[in-house]
Write a structure and sequence with these properties.
The structure is a single chain. The protein is α+β, with helices and mostly antiparallel strands. The protein has 4 domains: 2-170 and 607-628, Porin chaperone SurA, peptide-binding domain (Triger factor/SurA peptide-binding fold), CATH 1.10.4030; 185-221 and 486-580, no CATH class; 226-241 and 378-483, Chitinase A, domain 3 (Roll); 264-371, Roll (Chitinase A, domain 3). It contains 23 helices and 19 strands. The longest helix has 34 residues, at 375-408.
Length: 631
Amino acid sequence: MLETFREHSKGWLAKLILAFITVPFALWGIDSYLHNAGSNVAVAKVNGKSVTVQEFGNAMQDMRNQLQASGKTDPAMLDDPAVKQSVLNKLIVTRLMGDEVQRSKLTISDEQLGKYIMGMQEFQQGGKFSQELYDSILSQNHLTPSQFEARMRASLLSQTARDSIAAAANISRSASDNILKVEFQQREVSVADLKADDFLGQTKVDDAAIQAYYDKNKDKFRTPEQVKIEYVLLSANNFVPSMQVTEDEVKKYYDENASKFQGDEQRRASHILISFGGKTDAASKKEARTKAESVLAEVRKNPKKFAELAKKYSQDPGSADKGGDLGLFGRGMMVKPFEDAVYSMSPGAISDLVESDFGYHIIQLTEIKGQGQSFDEVKANIRGELMYQKALAKFAEQAETFSNMVYEQSDSLQPVVKKFGVPSQTSQWMSREDASKFFKNDKLVNAIFSDEAIKEKRNTEAIEAAPNTLVSARVLEYKPAAARSFAEVKSAIEAYLKHEQAMSLASKKSAEMIATLKQGKDVEGLNWIPPVVIDRRNAQGLTDEVMRKAFTINADKLPAYDVVDRKNIGFSIIKVSRVDSAIPTEEADRNAASIEVLSALSEEYVSAYLASLKNKASITINKQALSAGAP
């Protein structure tokens, strides 16, 4: 059971769906998808209630945001029908769960809701709930507290219903141990391969058979439709070389983001503070400065007496008794004038007077611990970053103009070439497959091979082929799909038919060998690999097909044998010579494994429950709307 569960939880699509289910729930809740629908067009109907195109579009946009946040930024992924279907399925399940919650009359008290929201990580600051952060995040997402709380209540109710089903899963210790015996079973396995290529010498194909195969399968021997295209690419990178960044902008960025460049550097300093006495008038400041200058002159005469003079003159009650020592501190821990002075000094140096809101400081840098990055070390990188940020802003300004021009002046790409100063590029002949490999964007490829682009020779719309990159293409020449002549494909057909015969001979031979082995007799010519001990987590280099077969062979009588069809390669004969079934001996390991069994069983309960809801419900899907997606 665990193996089956893991099999279905692998792969990018399963993980993508899982992320879609869990990430939005953490903050806005599943119910957020079902509000503020702006279109009456239904992509699906659940028990007579519509799931609108607008709702579906909102969910797809959330999926896009999650992909970008996780670094998967290929927009074509969202055009995958399987992804669209998974998003719609989630919305349908959400509707069904909402109906069940209402029928079951589940409730979440205000106290429970408040406690949950106050514990959410998104609203924590310094380990505590921050009302200011809570209000800020809700405001950024255009939500009132009542709207957010209603959505969270609905999401928690839905999760409560799921948890109650999962909690129904139960399994006895003996049943769990039996599962674990299977899960942790080890088998000693050896494998011998029969390759189809070894049987090619026994095959024979005449011209009549080749001709017959060609006549029967002409549709297989066609050159695909091909195009030559002109295309223009507008990217944020186009604007980078023209972006100007001044030295002042670079320094400002460094100063404002100093903590980014601090590394593990900390500094230790002592100071003598001559305060303004709580007054900010010019006379008070002048009086304080006169005194500070006098103390500074005394310090400069004898820097070794800094601690003694700090105790005598400093008006900072927190450090005066310590000789002015402030201990180690990093960037962001002191007021900015003080910090700027300290981080510009060398150990042992005495500063000039440094003015802050507290008064005048005389600073002595006593220690530098760790290492940071100086302005000179990082200014080239900062300049590049600022240039790219400006390029992104410029791209955002120009993207709409680019999109409008390729649409409004659809008979040529030259207007955007002249407007934006970007070159047009011309491709060689390319099929759909070639174009997919080149652009890595199915939406753009579909647009290139559309009737509008091929027959009317119009520009494609501007398509986001990659983050911050728009592409528009135009078909220059077109070749329709055409049949290949018999002469062109004869040798390929002959090789294919011979291979088919070789696979058939290998299959017959492997069956004969298995029969002989099961009779307890030896078979000559089998090249067995040295035996390896495998379990479900350690394949020891065996293929997935061999692993699956090795654990399904009936091992009541050993040695046991079976064969695996390796598709176009040949066959693998498998021998199981020993089986050991042992569950973990350490109690902690055994308990952990039992929890995994129960978790898998809980998932099966929830899946079965959701499937039963769907089976009982009246669900219709508008495939055309699903394919088109959100407007």
